[in-house]
Amino acid sequence: MKIAIVGGGPGGLYFAALMKQLDPSHDITLWERNAASDTFGFGVVFSDETLGGIGNADPVVAEYMSRRFARWSDIDIHFRGEMKTVGGQGFAAMSRKELLELLQRRCIELNVDVRFSTLAPAVEELEANYDLVLAADGVNSQIRAKYADSFKPNLDPRTNKFMWLGTNQVFEAFKFFVKETEWGVMQIHGYPYSDEGSTFIVEMHQDVWHAAGFDETANEVFPPGVSDEKAIAKIREIFAEELDGYEVLSNNSKWINFTTVRNESWRHNNVVLLGDAAHTAHFSIGSGTKLAMEDSLALAACLHEHPTVREALEAYEAERRPVVASTQRAAQASLEWFERIGQYKDQDPTQFAFNLLTRSRRITQENLRLRDPEFADAVDRNFAESQGLSEVAPAMFQPFRIGGLELKNRIIVSPMDMYSAVDGVPGDFHKVHLGSKALGGAGLVMTEMVCVSETGRITPGCTGLYTDGQRDSWKEIVDFVHSRSTAKIGAQLGHSGRKGSTKLMWEGIDQPLESGNWTAVGPSALPYSAENQTPVELDRAGMDAIKAEFVASTLRAEEAGFDLLELHAAHGYLLSSFLSPVSNQRTDEYGGSLENRLRFPLEVFDAVRAAWPAGKPLTVRISATDWIEGGNTSDDSVAIAKAFVEHGAAGLDVSTGQVAKEEKPAFGRSYQTPFADRIRQEVAAPAGAAVIAVGAISSYDDVNSILLAGRADLIALGRTHLYDPQWTLHAAAEQEYQGPGAQWVPQFRAGRRKPPSSRTDAVRPRLSLLKEADIEETTNHLRWTPESVTASVLVK
C-alpha cells in the first residue's frame, strides 16, 4: 500500500511503525508541521490493557516503554485539609517527549519517510495519489473540516478552563488537590511520569477563572511554544502550599477549554480519522495518546486482515466505535462532575473522595472493595456516622425519613403504568403486582400514575381515584401491604394532558385510540406528535376544574390509607406540559417565563398540600431536562425544584424527558442520576428535602455507590423490579446482610440464602503457598518512589 499520514503525534507514528512491521514493502510518508523536537505536554498515562496490546504488537516499543515507566497504584485526594489515599488502582506513565522520540526512532529504523517541519499537501492531492490517507492531525483537524459533510463532526466546547503544566516535584501517586479559594474551587490533576517530574494540570470553572483574574490575558494570542507566563505566575502563588517549594514548568502552556469531539463517521472514501481528529475523551478519565495508539493498532490490524481499504475501514470503525463510545460516556460523566465540583465543597472528606473516585461510574463501591477494602469499609462507616446511625450496613439498607415517614431502607418500587384497570378500578392484578413488590423487601412501593379524572387517563386501562369504588379497591391493596409487610405504599397522582386518549402500551405506545376516545387538554393547542390528538387549550375554568379533581383524588388517597403522595409533574403529562416551553406557548400569565409556566403546577401543588395530611409527605416527580432544543434544561430544573421545595415538597423524584416525541436522550447506565445529584446539592439538601434518583439503575452496587457519594437519598427502580419482584431481598442475600432493612416475611424466610448452583459447592484444594489475603495486603498500595524502584519496595 501507499499510505499518507498527516500528523506526527503518537497515533500517526505508531500506525506507521505497525504497518511497516506487517509488511516492509508498504510505502509510507508522514508529514508533521512541527519540528521533531517540538513536543508539547509532559506525561502520558496508559492502562495495563493498552500496554498488553502494545507488547503484543511491537515488543521493541513495549520493552523500551516499560524501562521508562513510572508505576504506582495509589490515588491521593487532598481536600479540606485532609488527604485520603485509595490504593489498588494501577497506573503507568511516561514522558510524552520520550515516547515521541522512541516512536520517531522506530519509524526511521523501519524506513518510514518522516517529514518534520513540513506541511502536508492538500488532502485532495493525497486522496488521489495514495491508497490510504490517515488524518491524525488532532482536535483541530483541517482534514475533518474539509470533509465535514461526510464526517459530520460534533464539537462540544466545555465550560471549564484548564492549563497543562508540569512540576519538578516527583509525586508518589496520582494527586488530586481540590482547593477552595476566595474565587471558588480550583483543582489540580497531578501524576508522576519519570524520576524527574510530574504532570500538573490546573482546572477550574470559567466563572472561577474570571473571578480570579485569569482572563487578563484572554485576548492575547500566544505563538506556538509560548506560554501564558502571567497566568503561570499566579498559579505558582495560589498553589504555593501544594508545590512545597518546587517549580511549575511550562511548555506551550495556555488556557484551554476542553472540546469533546464526536463524528458520525470516521471515513470518507480512502480518508480515515484517527485519535483526537475522530474523538476526544477528557483528561480526567484517560489519555488521548492511549486512545490514539489503540486506534492505530486496530486500524493496522484491520488493513492487514481485509482485502480492500473500504472493507478494512468499515471493520476498523465497527471495532473501535463501541470502545470509544464507552470511554467517551465515562469521560463525559467525569468532565461534567469536575465542571460542578464546587457543589461538593461542603462534603465530608471521606465522602468527597468516594464521590470523586466514582464520578465516571466505572468505579463502584464493590469494585473499590476489591481494590482497597480498607477504604471501602471506611466509606460505609462514614456514611452510617453521617446519618447518625449506629449500625454499619450497606447504604441501601440504612433507614431514611422523608417528611414524617420512616422507611426501613432506601429502595423504592418506581411508579410503572400497568394499563390493566377496568373503568379506572385497580383489581387483582394490581394487588398481586404491588403486593409482591412489598413482600420483596422494598422500603416504599409506589402505584402507577393514578389519574384524577376519566378524561385525565392516559389509556382506557389506567387507574384512577375519581370514584369511591376506585378508592375502596385501592384501600384493599394498601391494607394488604400494611398487614403483610413492613413496606410503605405511596400513590402518584397525575393527569395525562395532551398525551391522553391513547392505546394500551402493547397495542401501540402513545398511539391515539381509534374508538372510544376522549378530548385531550393542555396548556396550548399543540399535539404531542403529528399522530396525536390536538389538545384543547385550557381556560381558567378548565384549570380550576382540574385543580378540584386533584384535591378530590387527594382526599380519596388519604381515605385509602396511602402513606405518601406524589404529584406527577414529569414526562409530558399535564403539569409537565405546563412547565415545558416546548408544549406551553401561552401568552397569558401561565406561559412565557419559567415563573409563569410554574404558576398552574404550583397552584395544584398548593391545593393538594392543603388537602393532604400535614404529617404525610408530598413529593413531586419532575423531568429535569426535555432532551430537546428549546426545552427545559438542567438549569431550569434547579429553579423548578426550588419552587416546589419552597412550597413544601418533602422530596423530588428526578426523572427526565418524555415531553416531546422528538427528544434525543443520552441513554446510559444511571444516566439520569447527575440531574438528581445537582438538584440534591443545590436545592434539596440545604432545605432538608429528599431526592430520589431513577433511570437505568439496576444493580445494588450502583445503588450503594450513588447513596454513598451523596448523589441521592433514595433510589427508585422500575424494570428491575419487574425482572425480579424480590430484588431487594436478593440484594441483601448477595451482600450477606440480615437486619431490619431487609426483612423476609415468615413464609419466605427459608429462601433468604442464595440457592447453590452447579459446582458452587465444590471444595477446592489449596494450591498456593501464600494466602491470597496476604498477597493483597502487601500489594494494595504502591507508591512511585524512584530511588527505591529497583528494589521493588511496596509501601503499605
UniProtKB/TrEMBL annotation:
Its EC number is 1.14.13.40. It comes from the Bacteria. Signal peptide: none annotated. Residues 125-328 form the FAD-binding domain. Residues 396-733 form the NADH:flavin oxidoreductase/NADH oxidase N-terminal domain. One of its GO terms (molecular function) is anthraniloyl-CoA monooxygenase activity. Keywords: Monooxygenase, Oxidoreductase. PANTHER family: BLR3436 PROTEIN (PTHR43303:SF3), NADPH DEHYDROGENASE C23G7.10C-RELATED (PTHR43303). This is Anthraniloyl-CoA monooxygenase. It comes from Paenarthrobacter histidinolovorans.
